[in-house]
Amino acid sequence: MKSCGTWLLLLILGFCSFSAVHAEEDAEPGAGEVPLVHVREHETWFRDAWMVRLNGGYSTDENLGSITGGKVRVDNTYSGLIGLSVGRPIVDDFRDWPIDFIWKAQIIRYFERGDRDDFWGGTVSIKAYWKQFPWNKVVRTRVGFAEGVSYVEHVPSIEKEHLKSKDRNTSRLLNYLDVSVDVNARDVTRVKKMESCWLGFAISHRSGVFESVDIFGEVRGGSNYNTGYLECQF
Fold first, then answer.
1. How many angstroms separate the CA atoms of 45 and 93, rounded?
2. Is the pLDDT of residue 215 over 70?
3. Average pLDDT rounded to a whole number, residues 183-199
4. Number of domain units in the chain
5. Given this model, what pLDDT does residue 218 score?
6. DSSP per position, 191-218
7. CATH code of the domain containing 8
8. What is the mean pLDDT of residues 35-57?
9. Which domain range does residue 65 map to?
């Protein structure tokens, strides 16, 4: 079964495609009329650019729904992570909508507490950015959602503790979500050189998709990390 995140991305793509097809049908020319050629003014595929993001933060006991609802807590007594990701655009302004899609690969260093060893992990994902908001003339803003997979050398202690208390499985390979909101760095710092950079907050989420995917070990649960980041385009 596909995860809810995958379905959300497919729903976005399907809705945009549906809207475009019906717009074309509504504009069918009559007899003797010159057919209209629909040109997308802004849509751009595979633009030659790189996105690099550095993020860091701490794990939290809150679930994904609570965090996105505003219950954000940063506690440096918890385990933490630092991640470096790179990505390339897939499409900008898909169907001339204010939504971009990019692919991303990330390497992560997890920092454990006490006598537990630190370890490495990585993610691969596709991320969508919605970038149209009423206040964009003042501060350009994006909301992002990524869906992919996460692999770690060792299962994070926060996952072990939560799942062990519920007598549930753990797994090094899990579904990965990244939910973010950011603002243009130039708009908030007034530094011209920061035009292509974004400052933001992201939730790094690993889970087994409610035991629905066999390759994730039928895990029900996972972990969340609240992180801050700087992302720049080159």
1. 9
2. no
3. 97
4. 1
5. 62
6. -GGGTTEEEEEEEEEEE-TTTT-GGGTT
7. 2.40.160.20
8. 87
9. 4-233
